[in-house]
Amino acid sequence: MRIKQVIIRGFKTYKEQVSLVEDFHPAVNAIVGLNGSGKSNFFNAILFVISDHFGTLRPETRKTLLHEGAGPAVLTAFVELVFDNADRRMPIDKGEVRIRRTIAAKKDDYMLDGKHATKTEVFNLLESCGFTKSNPYYVVQQGKIAELTLMNDSRRLELIKDISGASVYDDRRAESFKVLEDVRCRRQKTDEVIDGIRRRIEGLEDEQRELADYQRLERERRCLEFELSDRDWRAAQDRIDATQVDLRDVGARLEEAQRAATALRMEASRAELDTQQLSAARQGLATEREEAEKSRAARVDDLARAQTELAHERARAKAGDKARRDAETDLARLREEVVQAEREVAEARESFDKELSQQRDLARRRQQLGARRDQLLAAHGG
Asked: Is 88 helix (H, G, I), strand (E, B) or coil?
């Protein structure tokens, strides 16, 4: 494997595109020229692509790598190396491999055979064929020969490993061990997380079982509540029906009571009328009694006068029997009238007492009817 072509444009002193292809020899190549002709920039261009010397570039460093001179400013630059891969040293099934690096003020890209690639992919490919980015002794700069002659054995051994590429595998081995350690730590953490998750799953399973029991009990509770609610509803409906029946009965009894109260009021009205009639009759009887009393008094007066006259007649009896007999006849008649008057007074008194008793009975019945009416009205109001 060798470099068979270098293409440069805009890099340092190479403003225009320069392509070196025919001047490279498969074995050894030497570049000579005057000072300032671009020999160092040519080597820097090669290192720019395959070395870590220009690994991380800040914006101001990128500007120093761009061509600075008269004419329009150069905004972008690239260096492309074409490798002869006939021996397939690079793990790519092609006769040649092209690696290009392009930079700008805010740009730093790699391309591999015309396709975009990352810096890591490019350097992994170079390291696989012997280019080490940390110790690029495949490009020996000025002063390196003297440094090599002064190295001790251990340093030379490291140099041989670097040149042969063995150090790359040592680095990768160390990185692999580090990765394994990281993996072990992560696995340990993962195992701890898994244990925690397992415990959490066990807890969740317990919670799931408790939730299932809770849901089952909740369903049973709801069923029981529904049964109780349905039973209460049926009982309440029965009570409502019974209450409606009682209400209808009470309504019927109330109507009957109202009819009875109406009848009682009518009967009370009739009793009141009878009472008034009895009162009028009582007043008539009282008037008749007074008249009878007056008649009796008059007859008593007549009797007294008759007795007086009888006494006079008796006194005059001696005067004549006829006058005596007449007087006796008048006396007997007067006595009969007195007896008749007394009989009429007794009958009037008996009739008055009877009317008074009936009036008292009517008043007592009127009070009873009023009390019954009040009871019916109180029951209707309740």
From this structure: coil
